[in-house]
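Hey, I was hoping to borrow your eyes for a little while. I've been puzzling over a protein and I'd love to understand its fold better. The fold is given in discrete form, as structure tokens running alongside the sequence. I'd be grateful if you could look everything over and explain what you see. No rush at all, and the record is pasted right below.
>
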Amino acid sequence: MSGRAAANVAVVTGAGRGIGRSIALAFAERAYTVIVAARTAPELESTAAEVEARGGRAVTVVADVAVEADLRRIVSAAERCDGSIDVLVNNAGISPKPRDGRRTPFVEMTLQEWNDVMTTNLTSAFVLSRDIGALMCRNRRGSIVNMASVAVRMGAQSSGAHYVASKAALVGMTKAVAREFAPYGIRVNAVAPGRINTRMTEIANHTLEAGWIERSIPLGREGETREIADVVTFLASDAASYITGSTIDVNGGWTMS
């Protein structure tokens, strides 16, 4: 990546499919170099090809964010950009539904399942925000966007207690880091999607009663991944220059207050 200007570099985890893929493509359309990270190489290569087709530059890192050595490789890819990272999107996450699309009941949840979710959803965001955030602070610019969830507002419905807890902690971490990084000009925010049309929600959809979406969501439909990506790119842009420590709900009015 030598010879490239320092600006317009974004790191996106969980970029192989779903929301992460849409976020990567949205940054590509804005001519970013996008460091895309995901566990599955074929999906990642597909995302990278589309990033290039849409005017961006892709750097792929096959990585499981639950593995410390893999997180280190993501950070190393960022460091090879001469430390000039503009955006970090902590999107990678899991929501186990091992019972034919249904969550594990809290009283039957194993410590291993709990730890797997916490490591993937929360600890990875801590490590990457700490290490890539340090690069941003050095350059006194940057934006971090963490992927929370409507589950933080609603509690466990289709998601397990571990998922809800990890996303609630992510919102708390967002506020804490936003306060610490503000003197360096780094903004830190979160996005809390509602029910979005992804493979993850498809697994659980057959557990819903007929007409549940139309009755429960004022806009009467699931959201699309691009609708989340548009909010992420807004938060990363200068148009959101006075927004930090916030969590933006994107859920079709499901949690209107």
Notes: DSSP finds nine helices and seven strands in the chain. The radius of gyration is 17 Å.
